[in-house]
Amino acid sequence: MQTEMNGANETIVTEFVLLGLHDHHDLEMVLFVLCLGIYSMNVLGNALLIGLNMRDPCLHTPMYFFLSNLALIDISGTSSFVPLMLVHFLETQSTISFPGCALQMYLTQALGSTECVLLAMMACDRYVAICQPLRYSELMNRQTCMWMAVLSWGAGFANSLLHSILTWSLPFCGHNIINHFFCEILAVLKLACGDISLNALLLMAASAVVILPPLLLIFLSYVFILTAMLRVPSAAGRHKAFSTCSAHLTVVVIFYGTIIFMYIKPKAKDLNMDKLIALFYGVVTPSLNPIIYSLRNAEVKAATIALLRGDLLSRKMSRFPVVL
């Protein structure tokens, strides 16, 4: 909807139209079923991880504390846009209010940035666990873990707040059709009728700051981890050391691999392909985390089995120090 300004020929935008794939309604019906199933699996799987980490004394360690934060990010990130997107799949025209679009853009970008930093914090935890095992409970104490989590959330939300302020201070006085499934920042900026060169420059710089330093920290952490593992004399010892970080490494490869592919791939001639790739990144990737941690982590498997048997709370404490 557009409202005419008094004494001027300009109009201001009060709501946006989300184009999605309305030219391919049959495909939208298929996406509705797939996204509903994947989103349900995402919420249930990550909620189960959070519940297990809270209830099982054996999981009261820094690694599972960070895993709970990751699960919360995945639930919140998808919930910020998927439910409304599912409704829009069933409608002939999809609209979202100006404040609703601003909130959706802020949350999706904030939670995505938070996950980048949190994955680096998780890599640091694995580094200390494997390379400094005797000082693990001293270095990764409750206070340290809380500050690492606060840093992750604070950096992500501060980064998104900066972009939101700069984006929504631009004039939107004409087109209101967003060529996407949700209010993605680049798609929104294309509708502004002011100069967006500063926004584009800051977006590139902030993306580099949020993505590259955490990725470098993860890389260095695993270089030291690999070096420490190679010094372990027995194959069984090396396998045990690797098993403690294999799930995190798999999540990192999927998360950053998708981001890198989105940025370095050639521009698709069909814009619908770009939207589908973004949809995969936003919906499918978060749902994989609970599957990965369930399949590749013996403690999570044991906690799930104990939950099904009804004796979760009676499980004995693990030999790992409880620092949370």
Describe the structure.
This protein is mainly α and 324 residues long. The strands form 2 sheets. Strands 4-3-5 form a 3-stranded mixed sheet. Residues 317-324 have low confidence and may be disordered. It contains 12 helices and 5 strands.
Structural topology:
Blueprint: E1 2-4, E2 11-13, E3 15-18, H1 25-55, H2 62-79, H3 82-89, E4 95-97, H4 98-131, H5 136-139, H6 142-168, E5 177-178, H7 185-189, H8 197-230, H9 235-243, H10 246-264, H11 271-295, H12 298-309
Number of helices: 12
The amount of helix comes to 55-70%
Our Rg estimate from Cα atoms comes to 22 Å
The separation of the N and C termini measures 51 Å
Largest sheet: 3 strands, mixed
Shape: globular
Strand-residue fraction? under 5%
Number of strands: 5
- Low-pLDDT runs of 5+ residues are 317-324
